[in-house]
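question for whoever is on the cluster today: can someone run the full assembly for these? two chains, 1146 residues total. i dont have access anymore since they changed the login thing
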Amino acid sequence: MLTTTIMLMIALPFAVALLIPLFEKTGLSFMREVLAVVTGVIVGGLSLSLLGHIKASPAPIMIYDWMPGLASYTVMLDGLSATLAIVAGVLGGLIVIYSLEYMKNEDGLSRYYSLVLFFIASMLGLVLSDSLLFLYIFWEMIGIASYLLIGFFFKDEKSANAGFKAFLTTKIGDVGLLCGIMTLFAATGTFSISELTKLAAAGLIPENILYYCAFFFIAGAVGKSAQVPLHVWLPDAMEAPTTISALIHAATLVNSGIYLVARMYPVFLGTEIFCNLALVIGMITALLVAALALFQSDLKKILAYSTVSQLGFMMYALGVHGYFAAQFHLFSHAIFKALLFLCAGAIIHYAGTRDIHEMGDLKELGALKWCMAIGWMALAGIPIFNGFWSKDLIIYQAFHYEGFPMARFSVILMLLAALFTAAYSFKTFYILFIKDKKKANALAQDTAHAKDAGHGKAKAAKAHDDSHAHHAPGMIIQVPLMILAALTLVSWLCAGVIASYDTMTLTLPAASAEMKFVEEMHSIGFMIHHTLVSPTTYLALFMIFLGYLLYKKKDAFASVIGEPSVREAFARGLYFDWLYLNLLAFVVWIGGLLTEVFDGLVFDNLNRAIGLCSVHFAERFRKTHTGNLNANVAGLAIALLIIALICKFA
Amino acid sequence: MENQEVINHTMALLRNMQFLLVAFPVFAGLILLFTGKRHSRLVPGTAFFISLLTTVIVFFLAHQNYLNTVGVVTKSSWFGSVTFGFKFDDLAAIMLLIINFVSTAALFFAQDYFKKFENDYYFIFSNMLIFLGGMNGVILSIDTIQFYFFYEMMLIPSYLILAFYGESEKRSYISVKYFIFTHVGAVLLLVPFLMLYTTNSATNFDDVAAVLATMNPDLAQFVFGLLFVGFAFKMAIFPFHTWLPDTYTEAPLPLTVMLAAGMINTGVYGMARFLFMFPPSVTSQFAYVMMVMAVITQFYGGLMALAATEIKKIIAYSSISQMGYVLFGFSSVLPLGYMGSVFHALNHGLAKGLLFIVAGSVVLVTGKKLITEVSGLGAKYHGLGVCATIGALAILGAPPLAGFTSEWMIFAGGFGTHFKGLAVLSVIASAITTGYSLYFVKRIFYGKLDESIAKEDIPFRMRVTMGIMAAFVLVVGVFPAFITELVKGAAAVLKM
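^ ran it for u. tokens below:
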């Protein structure tokens, strides 16, 4: 039963993805939408049905013997994989429905729906895989889907570049992952994660192998989950249709790096370096990129930076042994960030621009405004919303973690990152909905246009999305939004359920703090108590209060950090792009140099020299061919004599 | 019961028909050469039919091998102790599958491509057929002298087509360069072959294997070196690669496809066949050198492809880089690496054939040779864009396409050795592959379309060929079990 369910979940979307393009030029083009929605809903339902199959001690299930005797696709269903499968399946279904209205006037829809289904199937395959090789296969496949969907508007140079950049950047991480997988395989002879876990627990994997592999696996996660320094692809990936940003670049694909670290956690428990790397990288990412988000004016870029920063929180959580906390935050974040992106998509369609300063009056978007408010509040960490609980769990776990020398210090930095998060959440919401646009217009012209360097880009970015400007969103768009908003309010109630499925967490010694937290989460008294003592509550409220005061007077963040060059540096993402572009150009330059030096100078000239030598030799030698019979005979005689002498003495 | 016997007998006969793989194309080629001038309209169809027939036979025989993994041999004495015969084993099956498949594809669309040489059909197609017969002969040979005979036999027709129908004015210079380089490689093979013949009168592969296994180590190293360099010329391993980019760029498209996806595999085959006849002690002495050369080749080809601006040349340099992967697998001297390399020859052939037809189509419809002169073609040629994407993704080793099925085995082999640092470098080279192959797609197919450069349609047969090859790239990637079984059988030589 379970085998059939999983096979169907993965094979059905693939099959339909291949089927959809066949309707392209027939009169039945409506079939692609029908097929996509039906498949999306079926897969969503099936993914929910996985909950009933989770066992206390899961065993790998064989699904497909890909290369008999060498590699086969085996599946492991536990709390972690089920959580991610449900996120991918259910969100995938919702987003396919949302696309019906959102994408309806675009070209190339069969490509769009095919790739979305291809992505959903690959994502499900990834999170369910017990074989590292198949994890990598699906890992690459979601990358391909992402690459092709970022370049969906392929006639636009910017989309093309963004897709290219996304694939190349993540590929650098993938190189690490593949090295890690192959090193582990060479050392143990197995791809199975459950086998590796057992081997690691028995201490049968050499220490130094694990040490190197820790770096390799973290590199893979850094690439896919857009952590510093490979975070540069995600903001650019916002060239994709907003539905794709919501599904792939907020809720699923970018989580796969976190998933990888969590999945490999038991294997690397013995090596401190694994957790410490996650901790440091997560901390830097959360803090730095949250700061970057403050200076953006493109709505989708704000969300992209915020996604990176939140992924940093999850990575950090894994670093402080908050195995469940990371998973919980991943779950919450997927929901509220998808909500935010889908709201942003509707707003961008309505306003015809992606620049928050130019969006004009949005006050008539009633329901949408409240949905988005819920999303921002969850992101900022306001109590009761799911983002508050999961982020608090991370901070709580970090307070109780003692494995890292400066863990306490890192908590302070993370609180600062939470503060920034609240700040940009409030800033964006304020500019979008509260600020009096007419009065502020002159000011916005003045400050935003002149100073925000990201601004020009955002202005140019309105190319695609404004084609259907000023349509208030219809029901098909609003229903998924409301579902997600409702989930944002209540999804944290599932924490206990998820935790109870989480066999891994229960065996982790360091996780006792977070488990206590989760157990108590259901008592009202604890909830009120915790809300009152939690520092993040006060930080978020303080930030909103402060922001409101500042904005009352004038466009505040412009004046808080006054130095224009600093502002520009942050708006441009601290020149990471500049650095990488030059690096790439350098590599290409090396290639050109090699071509010239080796193939041009050395080899061609060598060939020519050999050719010329033989020609010259022949020229000289020609003089011996006099045509004179006497000379020829004399030559023959001498030659014979030499041969005879050689034969005699040899 | 009787029926069963008849069936068994027929099957036994059918299983022994591997000699047809050489006989059909060669004789058909000769007949076409002498009679084809008068029936020029029939020539392309006949040639295509013959190659299709050989492909079907290869599929049948490969399937037989897949079922019972016993190679079949026909053997007779040629002159002296030299034998002549055809052996169809697992390794041969893989190579023949790709060679015959891409040659059939090339012969199919050659009719469209060579339209302007309609009067020369008989010459072009007969040479292509003899070329195919030569390649099949190389793979099926059971004797070193016979091997050398066919090795040179495939050189001549390919040289003739290149010299007469090359794409630019440099065709005679480049064809001579091609001839000399590959010929030098072949002569380097002849030295050890003749040495073994004169000293041990061993020319049959079985005898050669027996002699090599017990040869004195110093001499064995010398022989190994010569064989390696000889095949390295054919595979275009750095620094023996300079003939390749020029040749592939210069050759008319059908020939390019046959060279890049077919003939290069005879080099791979040679390494797979001969280098593992030596005792492991000899092979492993060379492992490090081979591995370093492989990594250099990977990087070198990749960097050159990044820097190249000619559309066909990018794909040509990519071939060099991909042969680096193949050599890397061999140099691990482990079953997984060996299997990966042999499999990669097939996967690379499929993907590279596809990419070359894509590149050729771009050049054909736009008339531009430089990548900087074209952009946005995806808006007009949807199918071509899809095929280019599939080909590029397969080359960069993205699952579920064909390239990855072999690449992971190559890397697994590499990490199984002591030289893990080199293995990491080799994986890093795949990032460069990603760079140039996706840049190729992005530059040509994305962006704004310049209507003035894209007026013509892609010929029908080329579209069909690309569609079928793209489908195969996907199918081999998703259902590799058939090939995997053959590859496993081929790797049995390593279980020493």
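summary bc i know u wont read the tokens: The mean pLDDT of chain A is 82. Chain A touches chain B through 53 residues (CB under 8 Å).
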